[in-house]
Amino acid sequence: MTIIWWPGRHGFWHWMLLISLLNSASAQEPGFVSIDCGATSNSTDPTTGIHWTTDAPYISTGKNQVVDRTVKSNINEAQLQTLRYFPPGRSKHCYTLPATPNTTFLVRPTFLQGGIEPLVDSSFRLSIDSTIVEDLTWNAPDIDGVYSYEFVVATDLTSDVIIFCLLPSGGTTAFISTLELRPLAEGMYDVVYRRKYLQALVRFNIGASDSDPVIRYPDDPYDRAWYPYRGSISAAETTNEITADGLFDKPPSKVLQSAWIDPTSFWWQFTPQNSTLDKTKIFYVNLFFAEVQTLKPKDVRAFSLSLNGEMNYPNLTLGTEANVLFNKALTITRTGANFSFEILPGATLGPVLNGGEYYASIDLTLSSTDSRDVNSLEVFKSSLGLSSWAGDPCLPVPYDWVTCDMGSTPRVISIQLSNFNLTGTIPSSIEDLTALTDLWLDNNKFQGAIPDLSKLAKLKTLHLQNNLLSGGIPSTLASLTFLTELFLQNNKFSGPIPADLESKSGLNLQTSGNDKLCAPTENCPILPPDFTDDSGTTGGGGSKSGGSGAVIGGIVGGVIVAIIVIGLLVWFYCRKHRKPSPVTASSSSRPTPTGASNASARPPTGAAGVRQARAFSLHEVEVATSNYKTKIGEGGFGPVYYGRLPDGTEVAVKVNSETSNQGATEFSTEVSTLSRVHHKNLVSLLGYCEENESQILIYEFMSKGTLREHLYGREMKGKISWKQRLDVALNAAKGLEYLHNDCIPKIIHRDIKSNNILLNEKLLAKVADFGISKLAPEGDSNSTSGQTTIVRGTTGYLDPEYYAHSKLTQKSDVFSFGVVLLETISGRPPNSKDYNLVEWARRQLNSNDLDSIIDPFIKGSYDPESMWKVAELAMGCVEPYGVNRPDMTQVVRALSQAVEFEEQKSQTFSSQPWTPSSGQGRSYDDYSSNNSTGSPYPPTQGSYGATTEYEPKPLFTP
């Protein structure tokens, strides 16, 4: 099944990709992308069911070639018979791979030189998104070698593509044979969410023999390659099914069914190559254990594990289930890592090891080109037929025709497209490249008028000579303060030259070769811009070949109609199955408050019987509150009092104060909206009163107060655990997600803050206070265009985009919720006289110093992966530009994962003195990352020893 995100930044291209791959359904896992580079037709592997496609849908540069020799390999042998190569001339060649946001992927490129000229001394680099991940060099001995690399990367909450690029070096030819993308399960190799990527160095099926095949899909559902160890070891195996469902990184059963065993001890050493240690000394290591022998009643398998001579696990007892020891940040120096396994005194069986993995853990390049420049260039490239230039325009290397200011956030400062044979008009999107200093579009075939360039305040040189541009010369060009070169010669401009331009100090203005231009003081007409197509027909209405044009038009029209029909069918199907039909509120004898909206909502299951808001008399309110005896809060709407209805229901009564400036409009909005909106994570409106100019709202009473009180209130501070905080955040996010996605019209809260997240007696969180909520406009309220409205909200939580431009979107709520997440982590308010929480947290996390922002009351009581997940989610929510923030559905998904990390502290080994295993649960543990120094531990008692020295090329080669 192909997952499609529509609408979205790349939604159209995902649709086109779906249409092109409709014939590619197979038995493979959902989300597999398998590209047979250089192939001219698709194919399906008869053994695995994996469907291989040509690379045409993913890249538009390079040339196909058939390999000039027979290739024998256990890595995609059939697909190694062709390749795609990229002659010198471009800085990068990029594959655009469809991906799912907030997901971990394995990316595997494979290379066989295959007879490309020149046969030797080819070198190029590989990059994933903005990060260079490997440098490759081919010399004469490498020509017939098959080289495969594996990288584990994660998309962020908004990325729906992965960009894989080849970056030629020194004018050499780059090439690639296959490219594979494999989605991994949630939680696997989760350090990649810490702004890391992993490069696979070693992955062994340790108990396998030399004759055993490499284990891949379908035995490994994630299609990792597990190689037989090929060491001189004693091994045992079983045919019993061994599952690894409880292990985060999920080794396949076939790896666990064989093991290296010894009656006393053995050791296994791994030594990274120096080139790897030059990039990192931090490694992600997995060691997998499972029982493969039939034990007698009195048998006990117990052993110790030492790392580099220091005891890490003195008492390990192997149970009946698969187990793992892993270290996500093991420091390894040039002395390597020596793991020593030794039987414990009194045990009857010695150590066992079934599988092992080593990954280099390397920092990602976090920056990317300014989103305004990226979006502008996407339109620019599409308009001019330059879409073959894929990937980030500046990183890791810029397009050949782009120059960038490589600051913390790169900006495009120069475009030089001279002599590119470009046609059409100059795209108006160029005006959004506001850092541009040089724009050279000369010696092309551009027609029409010069677009408005007045936003390019930093522009210094503008070269448009030798084109077919027409119309008048814009006088706004004179407003460009730094403009020093304006070359317009040999075009079709008409009318007077603007006087301000001709007299502009320091400007080199060239206008020769425009016969219909005249001096500023002369009176000559400005002719309308013209556009002439290749056939010579003015206005672009002609064609060289009417018949072929009609045929092409018919084909294109048919494809478009087919896409529209399929899209509508899918849209109606998803709409029908995703949400239940709206429930019409029952009629009431009470009138709707003046100015009420027509908001309605799709209630969740069981909501049909939800108690509807009713009108109360002022006398009933006074009785319920004992004449407003107990004040429990104060808000912008007015004071809040505790009350109890005749049936015993506790309520919170909000009374509109005389000084409130949030009166009639907010009152009508809350009553009309909340009386129709029902969700377990939204505070329910039970009633209202509008009598004698009183405006009163009656809510369910939330006995445990606000989230803010629990985080840093005087009486409750420090009394809520990290797990409870996670649950509160997740439930609040679900309530907000319901407002954004399931209400008709959709609702933007506008005042999300920790004071508006209330807790009941079970600490169930509910979002409150819709006094300034806003009904979203029809269409995509998540759009960056938003709706113009008076800025309302609370200082410290306000979306900077909303504050600056008064444009309200759902992403404004997301920003505010991100601030709440930072409060949840730190136990600090959003701002004070001395600091701003968002900026302070951003500085600390950019320095990889998570510990410094964590509330001291919860230190030592949380799962690190859970905390990192929420911290990175929070920073994603408070991105300055809304387009870069997740939506609330993605927020809910990420928080759910954080909760799973906190709950699934699965156990592996007993750390107590060993006793015969009864198969009970174990606890996960990490190796100490400080035990990386000292000499390797010698195999003094072991009957077997093995050393693995990582050789980067070929990495996974038979």
TrEMBL record:
Q: Which PROSITE patterns match?
A: PROTEIN_KINASE_DOM, PROTEIN_KINASE_ST
Q: Which GO terms describe its cellular component?
A: membrane
Q: Which reaction does it catalyse?
A: L-threonyl-[protein] + ATP = O-phospho-L-threonyl-[protein] + ADP + H(+); L-seryl-[protein] + ATP = O-phospho-L-seryl-[protein] + ADP + H(+)
Q: Where in the sequence is the signal peptide annotated?
A: 1-27
Q: Which organism is it from?
A: Riccia fluitans
Keywords assigned by UniProt, alphabetized: Glycoprotein, Leucine-rich repeat, Membrane, Repeat, Signal, Transmembrane, Transmembrane helix
- UniProt subcellular location: Membrane
What name does the UniProt record give this protein? non-specific serine/threonine protein kinase
According to the record, the segments passing through the membrane are 551-574
Which PANTHER family does the record cross-reference, listed alphabetically?
OS07G0107800 PROTEIN-RELATED, REPEAT FAMILY PROTEIN, PUTATIVE, EXPRESSED-RELATED
Polar residues bias: start-end ranges: 583-600, 906-946
Q: Where is this region: Disordered?
A: 579-609, 902-958
- List, alphabetically, the CDD domains matched: STKc_IRAK
What InterPro entries does this protein's entry cite?
A: Kinase-like_dom_sf (IPR011009), Leu-rich_rpt (IPR001611), LRR_dom_sf (IPR032675), Malectin-like_Carb-bd_dom (IPR024788), Prot_kinase_dom (IPR000719), Ser-Thr/Tyr_kinase_cat_dom (IPR001245), Ser/Thr_kinase_AS (IPR008271)
E.C. numbers: 2.7.11.1
Q: Which residues form the Protein kinase domain?
A: 626-899
Q: What is its main location?
A: membrane
The membrane topology noted for this protein in its Swiss-Prot or TrEMBL record is:
Single-pass membrane protein
> Organism classification, top ranks?
Eukaryota, Viridiplantae, Streptophyta, Embryophyta, Marchantiophyta
